[in-house]
């Protein structure tokens, strides 16, 4: 049984600007004697809050394929290079026929990135593939280039799945062939094998590129998992199956606009076409050079025949065969020049595209920084606005408390009976209730100290204003109850809120029946050690932390 390397990472960095990968793969022996690849310490590419755009400018998009490609699949090689670079799987499985082109592109990426990963290509290889590759040729190429971490398995996918442990596959590639048999492949059977960071690539998903059974499978997966579909060529759809897929999750975000999605599709379609053009140009160049060499070498059969015919001077001049051969040579030379120019143009287009992507990244970064600064300024403004609102509420309440007991006196000006009645009413309330003039003096002094005194540090005044605003507007501070309960507060020259903040809390006074000062300080030693007013702490932090204000 093959035990694929598992990856249990659920988080990825959001701060580092680059990415690294471990180049060391560790192997151990399991209890049953099988070789088991252990997870490496490689770090995944950090995701950013900016989305998919910063992930697009990767050198891997412009790599040259090392494997001699089937041109029908060359248009998706840049996408595979990019996906491997961004996702960085620890284990990869490819299923289905004609696996060589994509599979060796995966292997080339893993080797070039230095990833500690395991790769498996699975197919029955019952006949020669459409690309002309056989099991023997693919196995030979794999052994000579990627044998250290890659394995070619000649078996059916249903049987192969039993050789993988659950939650071990980070990337599953499925090629939909023309003879795809839905009954022979059950995706749900492979689902337990997929890890938390698993993505699934399905090739051949465009309309007309695969049989009906394959399209039904794709439709079923689209209903279950977030996906992104590339439409060029035979089509490829990427499904997000794992819960923690890392930076590649931006590809499946609902925030991607239709324009952004279309731009991604167009970009990789152009890169794919450039890959095809480069492969064709290289092949034509090789053919032309080979033809030119064969045509100009004295030992070539065509040259010998031309020379023999020319020497014999059968017709007294060049024969038609010699003229035709010379024309072919000229045409080949012209083709070589044309292909070289086309290859140069393709390289120039790739450089221009790279510069364009760099400009997008730079512009996006500048806009992101500007947005961050604006958000911070807005947050600071909101904090100041809330503080001023609390202070306004406090001042309004204090003003109303002054105005209410003096209003009757003002209305009764010139009427001695009204003044006497008002004075008698105040006296009947008890000595613990302050007369308006005395209460006004206390409030005025408190406001001068807290709001305008230059002797108090501005930061300290801000904290006191915040504390006064919280206590004055809180239902946990009952001024009337506080003055009636504690004679020292009533006889002092301090406002009840000021008395509790400066003296009452230290003396163990309660601001109301709903809050027990000593209980709170004794129960929560961190508050007592910090020297913070217990009621202020409760209103700012304790309530949200589910701390109790009273024993019951």
List strands and helices in order, with pairings.
Blueprint: E1 27-29, E2 35-37, H1 53-56, H2 77-87, E3 91-95, H3 100-113, E4 118-123, H4 135-145, E5 150-154, H5 157-160, E6 169-175, H6 187-190, E7 194-203, H7 212-224, E8 227-230, E9 236-240, H8 258-296, H9 301-312, H10 320-411, H11 416-428, H12 436-452, H13 458-473, H14 479-485, H15 487-491, H16 496-504, H17 517-523, H18 525-530, H19 534-542
Parallel strand pairs: 3-4, 3-6, 4-5, 6-7
Antiparallel strand pairs: 1-2, 7-9, 8-9
Helix pairs in contact: 2-3, 8-10, 10-12, 10-13
What would you say this structure looks like, in words?
This protein is of the alpha/beta class. Among the domains are: 55-253, Rossmann fold (3-Layer(aba) Sandwich); 429-542, no CATH class. It is 53% helix and 9% strand. It has a 7-stranded mixed β-sheet with strand order 5-4-3-6-7-9-8, sandwiched between helices. The radius of gyration is 40 Å and the shape is elongated. The two termini are 62 Å apart.
Question: Which descriptors would you attach to this protein?
Answer:
alpha/beta; disordered N terminus; 19 helices; Rossmann fold; 552 residues; 9 strands; seven-stranded mixed sheet; elongated; two-stranded antiparallel ribbon
